[in-house]
Structure formats: C-alpha cells, structure tokens
Design a protein that fits this description.
Blueprint: H1 11-14, H2 22-26, E1 46-51, E2 55-60, E3 69-73, H3 86-107, E4 111-115, E5 125-131, H4 146-150, H5 156-170, H6 172-183
Antiparallel strand pairs: 1-2, 2-3, 3-5, 4-5
C-alpha cells in the first residue's frame, strides 16, 4: 500500500518546525487575524458574507476551489474552540453550520469539509470547503492538498456573484423562512 503525498504548506511546516512567532500568536500577541477590520466588507483575503453573533463568514479569494469559505471568530483572540465560553462555542458552531448549509444549497457539492486547524495561524477559524465529483475535485476521496486552497486566486467577477448569492442564503430572515417551510414536511 502506498501512502498519500503530504500536502505542501508553508516552508516552516515542511521543514518540521512551527511558523515564526507561533507562540506569540497563540497568546494573541501580534496575531495577524486579530488585525483584520471585522467591520469591513472586504478584508483582502475574503469578501464578507455574513456577520454572525460571534464570527464573520467570508468567501475566500485564494485557492482554486470555488465556494471556499472561512468563518473567523471575531470577538477576541482565541486559538482553540475549547477556550470559548459555552454560549460562544454554541454560537460559533451554529454559524459554521449555517455557512455549510449556504454552500451546500448554492454549490451542490458532493461533500463538504470543515477544517478547524490553526497550525499556521492560531486564531479560531474554520475552513468550509465544498468537494466536488471526480474530474472536478483535485483530491477526490482524500484531503485537499494545501496548494489548492492557498495558491491561485478566484476570478473576481465570479467571486462577487457567488458572494451575493451566499449573502442571500445567510440572511437570517431568509434562513428562518426556508427552515419554517422545511419544518412542515413529513
């Protein structure tokens, strides 16, 4: 049996060491994610889709996977979900699921991956990646190689159209209406 190739990543990880300033970033000192303007519609990395109770959902610009989104905890620096009070942890979980549902409704992926890692940037965030059929998905049946999430850029015009559709799906009034309509089914 052959082993699958290790996904490429930042040079520090490939060299078997943590990124520079990792321990400081774990403690919230100089955390690049904390430096985001969470009130902005665009943080450079991604386009704001929804401001939730405790996190912001973004459609990511980088990578080669259409519909790749990231949910970022915004209320304070937290590296692990276990550091959240129960109410905030529940809210983060609800917001992760709402983002996943919007992605599934819009893109109709074969599978959706949820990755809360923080090995490069230790600020609580979850990558929500739609996975597609063989021939479209770059790694069917296995983890996505890091390069497909990090290298390249999405087409800006398509990204803006996708963001508009996802915003509608994440709108609380629309979500409640859709949920109410589905609850009447037998």
């Amino acid at each position: 049996m052959t082993s699958s190739p290790t996904p490429a990543g930042p040079p520090e990880l490939a060299a078997g060491r943590w990124p520079e300033q990792f321990e400081e970033h774990m403690a919230g000192i100089g955390c690049p994610m904390c430096g985001n303007d969470f009130g902005a519609q665009d943080i450079g990395w991604g386009i704001l889709l929804h401001r939730g109770e405790v996190a912001n959902a973004y459609l990511w610009r980088s990578g080669q996977i259409r519909g790749y989104c990231v949910l970022i905890y915004r209320d304070a620096h937290v590296a692990e979900p276990t550091q959240l009070p129960d109410a905030a942890a529940a809210a983060f979980s609800r917001e992760t699921l709402a983002l996943g549902r919007a992605i599934e409704a819009d893109y109709r992926p074969l599978k959706t991956n949820y990755c809360t890692l923080g090995n490069v940037l230790p600020h609580l965030h979850t990558h929500v990646n739609p996975r597609y059929t063989a021939g479209v998905d770059p790694g069917p049946g296995g983890p996505l190689p890091f390069t497909f999430l990090d290298e390249g850029r999405q087409q800006e015009e398509q990204l803006q159209h996708d963001a508009a559709r996802l915003r509608l799906l994440l709108d609380p009034a629309i979500c409640l209406t859709r949920r109410d309509a589905n609850s009447g089914r037998d």
